[in-house]
Amino acid sequence: MTMAQSPASTAEQEVRYRRLIELGTALSAQRNHNRLMEMILLGAKDLTNADGGTLYLMVEDAKQLRFEIMRNDSLGIAMGGTTGRPIPFPPVQLYDAAGAPNHKNVSAYAAVTATTVNIDDAYDAGKFDFSGTKGFDAKTGYRSQSFLTVPLKNHDGDVVGVLQLINARNSSGQVVAFLADSAELVEALASQAAVALDNQMLLEAQKNLFKAFIEVIANAIDAKSPYTGGHCRRVPELTNMLTRAAVEVAEGPFAGFSLSEDEWYELEVAGGMHDCGKVTTPEFVVDKATKLETIYNRIHEIRTRFEVVKRDAEIAYWKGVAGGGDEPALRAERDTRLAQLDADYAFVAECNVGGEFMAPEKVERLKGIAAATWLRTLDDSIGLSWEEAHRKPGDKPSLPVVENLLADKPEHVIAHDKPPIAPDNPWGFTIKPPAQKFNLGEVYNLAVGRGTLTAEDRYHISDHIVQTIIMLEALPFPKNLRRVPEWAGGHHEKMDGTGYPKGLRKEQMSIPARIMAIADIFEALTARDRPYKTPKKLSECVKIMSFMKKDNHVDPELFDLFLTSGVYKAYAERFLMPEQIDQVDIGQYVSRPAE
Fold first, then answer.
1. For residue range 374-396, what is the model confidence (pLDDT) as tens digits?
2. Architecture of 225-278+456-588 per CATH?
3. If we measure between CA atoms, which residue out of 24, 401, 309, 311 comes closest to residue 187?
4. Residue 415, H or E segment
5. How much is the pTM?
6. What's the rounded mean pLDDT across residues 105-109?
7. What is the CATH number of domain 10-203?
């Protein structure tokens, strides 16, 4: 092929080789996808003094080339990449409907055959179809002439993209053909670019895989319990919203706060993994809506016992009548007993709900009801699993057996299978002695003072944050994700040092960790998908958090920013029901500057 341009001088070649080396070094260091692609195209244009060019990337199914970057100096065209201007052209098809390779389009040909194509003049190239190019020229008055189309091949020899340059120019600015040595330089650049691009695509694929894994874990945790559904998705959203507000504020305590691109990704990972330890928390604890609930609500067992005792009262009445007893007196005794049993069961059922404080007199009444007895005539040691049978005492009483109406039995205490964590654990913080059991005793659970959870239940729920830290610390995070355990593991800490599990104070916590603590609390307060509580109004949630600010449980300055930036309201509009959103007078909660 005849070249219309003189070969480059030795000095020119040395400059271009030096430029090629500089580009290769820069490409290997560039991590931003759009900037990397622009460096590839602009570097190739610079090496060949081309007027324009296009960078295509292979679509995942390897059947199309997608326009990624377009530049043309004469026409002032700059699309794709960092410009934010989309390229309006459809992808180039590499194969036709029958599966035959597309050898008519020069870019498709280069991609399919993995060969470089150097064309002096597109209008004289009979092998390829340049009708689209000619139509473009007719509309714009441009003259597309010389073309250099180079495939980008990675270290495996796979084509990951195509680099196409248009209209090489000589030192006088005239359009000429691309020299052979220019093509070699572009091929060398394309080889380095393909490796850099492939490495970046692999890193991006790994990042996407990890993000997908985090989402799977978060969705699995939310799916475990209808009471916390969506929590693992909403907390990261709110964390990002408040963090962005802290980054954007121009004055005050957060004026110098900022996050790099890597740190934003780190925050995303920390938010998604902040409750990963909940995978170890049993569902019957997380979902404990009543005091007797385990896998099911055991009030049904107790109701059956009350039914048995009521039947016994009926049977005693009829036996007395049949034996010639005083029928009116027997009936009165029966009716009194049945009314008492009905009242006692209603009281037990009320205690089970856990809606009111269990005053000492209520606990005493509960114990009195438990002292009542019933007659069991069936063997309760058969039909059991090995584990359940192993919990029962060795001595087996003879039937029939008189038992209490409510009981705390040895088999109600279930040993927990989590290994104990020593106080001098390798994670550097002191934790309270672990509850290595679940106490399912009926009286013990019904006598819980507030709510539905026993001390053991509360330990196991609180333990999720310890398990979160342990799980995250066990992961070999790369350098750019090393702070994930700290950011994710601090959302139950309090600014006064009374939080859990490390007892950190404000000055010992990073800003992202303090932000996540606010996000976790606010999401829980405003959540509309908790069956055990009525959704709270927005104003009520803000008021509750203001008390936490006053008690130095949440960062006061971050809470002020949470309100003044409008993040609380923006979050409410996205995630709360319309009937939850009411007016909030933030002026009464925001700290006034010291005079």
1. 999 999 989 988 888 888 887 88
2. Orthogonal Bundle (1.10)
3. 24
4. strand 413-415
5. 0.70
6. 94
7. 3.30.450.40
